[in-house]
From TrEMBL:
Domain Bacterial surface antigen (D15): 51-369
Protein name (Swiss-Prot/TrEMBL): Bacterial surface antigen (D15) domain-containing protein
Molecular function per GO: channel activity; ubiquitin protein ligase binding
Native source organism of the sequence: Oryza sativa subsp. indica (Rice)
Top-level taxon in the UniProt lineage: Eukaryota
Signal sequence, renumbered to the chain: none
GO biological process assignments: chloroplast organization; embryo development ending in seed dormancy; positive regulation of leaf senescence; positive regulation of response to salt stress; regulation of proteolysis
Coiled coil, from the record: none
Membrane among keywords: yes
Amino acid sequence: MGAQQSVNAGKVCTSTSPTCSARRAVLPPMRNSGATFSQIVGRISLKHPSLFGRSEKLDVILDKGINESNAVIAFRRPRPEWLSQQSFVIQLILLFTLVLTCSGLSNQHTMTPEIAVHGFPADNFTRSGSRGINLSRLSLGVELNEPSTSNWTSGTSVKFEHIRPVNNEGRSIARDHDGFPLTCSGNLHDNMIILKQESGYADVNDNSFLKVNLQMEQGLPLVPKSLTFNRVKCAVSKGMKLGPTFLVTSLTGGSIVGDMAPYQAFAIGGLGSVRGYGEGAVGAGRLCLIANCEYTVPLAKHLEGSIFMDCGSDLGSACHVPGNPALRQGKPGFGVGFGYGIHFNTDLGQIRVDYAMNAFSRKTIYFGINSGGGS
């Protein structure tokens, strides 16, 4: 069709969608730059097998990634005899995002770019460009993970979040380039206390699987000017064998009611939602509905081929996001992507190469590795 092919790079996918179960990276076009970037990645892990002499376990993990850092303190204690669960985990989580860049002798600290909601679609929606808006996020909380019972798992957490938009120079900003607020409060930052409940169901056998994941977040008005909201997201995926072939379908939906900042919107488009589009290039709204379907056919002993189709919509809810960022950036609110892929099953995992095309006949190539092994 004479379509322009692009190769995009992005973050590792962690979506619950089965069509994106592999941890995949999308490679972006290389750009010439005179700046030198310092990218430090590493992990420090400290473990104590019996903290108080009663088999209590303490884990301290410090991760430094390219785009974010993560500190987790986890305490595990064996169950008392009067409790039915096998164990419980309490985690103290401190999250912050930071990218260190160096140009000449000067250092500049910037936060994670916010392109999913505030980015503009480029190259016929195959990628999202930055508007110079970044998010600084500080999170502190406690998490309780209950052990699985039959096919069910569940977890509950309470955390405090302090979110501050900053520009590329690291200065706090309250409004975007068009003068619309970036926070719910209209100030330089938002504070919220979030109670989160997550439940999962999985029924897997040799011929089929069914997986359900339900997440509910409730903003609690426990501190002055904190956000009060309810955010629900549910993902259901079903896979079944059809002779030597395998069919996987999934449906994901979400809703937000109450207070809301623009950065909380459901971003649609990109790896994990609608392939062939840039991150958030389809739309961003208070509601979302995403459907994925992938059909896999064996080609050789360690080789598979697949065809897939993704579609997603904000269900007309973009206008209910403060400032209408998706509408101002010209995002359509509905998108369809389809394509095909080749999967190599190796001892190290499944290597995937997917070729997707969006509704504007623009193409994107995705590379990924599923460390869990082949299908």
